[in-house]
Amino acid sequence: MKPFSLAEIAGVTGATLAGPGDLVFRGVAPLADAGPEEMSFVAGPRNAAAARTSRAGALIVAAVDLAGGRPALVHPNPAAAFAAALAHLHPEARPEPGRAPTAVVSPEARVGAGASIGPGAVVERGAVLGERCHLEANAFVGAGAELGDDVRLGPGAVVAAACRVGNRCRIAAGAVIGADGFGYVWDGSAHRRIPQIGIVVLEDDVDVGANACIDRAALTETRIGRGTKIDNLVQIGHNVVVGEHAIICGQTGIAGSARIGSGATLAGQVGVADRMVVGDRAIVTAQAGVMREVEPGAVVSGMPAEPHADFLRREAAADRLPELFDRVRALEARTDKEE
Prior knowledge:
Number of strands: 40
Largest sheet: 12 strands, mixed
Radius of gyration: 26 Å
Strand order of the largest sheet: 8-11-14-17-20-25-28-31-34-37-39-40
């Protein structure tokens, strides 16, 4: 990383300078690890103690008193400012346009200007790649699929036939967009497969983590709203609709036809039963199971998921059960003696 000045980062992040702008730093690091020549950030008041003991030469903070008297950049969202600084200091390498000799691109596909297609990648007939798309090794774009501008597919990522991916989406290694939905019907002798003839639509700026899977709809669309971020190893079933700017963490599973509201957060290993609704801005905490509708803005926990406060009361009561059992046994023993 080349050296940078505090003023330079202030300009990139829009933060207010609180200290000499010509101070030069040589790197960025977490609070606990940063040294005098490095910059760090304080996410909020809960990190104030760590900030006081940090050796960082400068901090990005929400309020100047959190900087402990050292040079600072003041920004209402220090984490976002730090992310902007990192993006500036570590710009993502852009591949050279062109296609590897081992890539297979149908003459009936349309490839936008500046696209880069890596070794072993396949683009089938009728597919459309927007400008500056980047397909890494062995990525696959099925027949008739459409990618917007600046889409990036990681190694082995799949966008299956007819699915649509918006501008600036990032699909990580091994992710599959548009696999068949899990649809079967019992005909009296066997589970008969129901053809899945719908598609998946990713709106603009969606990120899909490694080995995540988003199934195509049975008849219409499985849709992921603009700006939604999906972690590694997430499974999203057919016909699901996810609103804008949702966060779906690792190992979450969303069954068919569920609805996830805009701004909702599903923490790690959450399960959402089929056709359930999670309202806008709701939070489902880790390992919870959604078996009934979650109201907008609610916070739910547990299996089955219930309001977080109720969950905490139930867990506290459960913790006391061994003690209660001991008391019951003591009472029984005393009663037996008295008899």
